[in-house]
Amino acid sequence: MKLEGVTIPKGLTCEVQVRTLLQHAYSELSHSRIYKPSFDPDAKVKRVIAKSMALLETTDDFFEEVNDRMNEIAAYTLLNQLTDLLSTTIDNVNLSSKANLQIIILPQSVKTSNLKSLFHL
Asked: Is residue 4 part of a domain?
């Protein structure tokens, strides 16, 4: 396989790093100074680095929490908009048709191919 002009042999074992943007920035700043220095950093420097990494992990957790909450709010807002749209649509349906009208919100896991059996069609 070729990747960006480099031939990669089949079966080659390699390391893949997955990290957040914040972790990447930290890595770029600290790698050459801490892990490949021209001298061995003392215990105090190593302790400060460990504390800063813990702070970054906590910050990542906060960002993830904010992102998850924003996604929940967006989903809730969309659901409310859809509910309003359906209510408006139902209000415009002929009253004689409303007696047979049912609205069911299905989870994403329900496949449309299963709908016929679900509704006994």
From this structure: no
pTM, two decimal places? 0.47
Residue 103: partners with Cβ closer than 8 Å, 6 or more residues away: 86, 90
pLDDT (tens digit per residue) in 38-88: 777 788 988 888 888 889 889 889 988 999 999 999 888 888 888 888 777
CB 29 within 8 A of CB 38: no
Question: What single-letter DSSP state applies at residue 105?
Answer: P
pLDDT at 6 over 60: yes
Which residues touch 19 (CB under 8 Å, ≥6 apart)? 27
Range of the domain at 22: 17-118
Question: What span, in angstroms and rounded, lies between the C-alpha atoms of 65 and 81?
Answer: 24
Decide: 60 and 23 in contact? Cβ < 8 Å.
Answer: yes
| Count of domains for the chain | 1
Residue 69 forms part of a structural domain? yes
Q: Which residue type does 34 have?
A: I
The structure tokens listed for 113 are 């191919």
Contact 52, 25 (CB under 8 A): no
